[in-house]
User: Which sequence fits this backbone?
């Protein structure tokens, strides 16, 4: 279940205001351009897991000079630990 809630519009607006291309920021973050676009469209597409998506959103926010806690609405509620590593 994808319970990640974040301000995807703020990420895109910030990137555009800084005149940074999706391709450029993707290269800086070692992501594909499709990952950046997916984050900005609030789509889980192209991410193999929720933990990968959470980590990518955090890295993206930091790269834009934003605090991840200000971007991710439920920052303290999401658990980035992959389900295979969780003890049941």
Assistant:
């Amino acid at each position: 279940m994808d319970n990640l809630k974040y301000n995807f519009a703020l990420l895109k607006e910030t990137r555009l205001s800084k005149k940074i291309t999706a391709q450029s920021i993707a290269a800086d973050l070692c992501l594909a351009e499709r990952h950046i676009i997916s984050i900005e469209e609030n789509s889980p597409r192209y991410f193999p897991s929720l933990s990968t998506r959470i980590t990518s959103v955090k890295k993206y926010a930091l790269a834009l000079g934003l605090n991840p806690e200000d971007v991710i609405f439920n920052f303290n509620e999401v658990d980035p630990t992959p389900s295979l590593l969780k003890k049941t």
In short: The two ends are 17 Å apart (CA to CA).
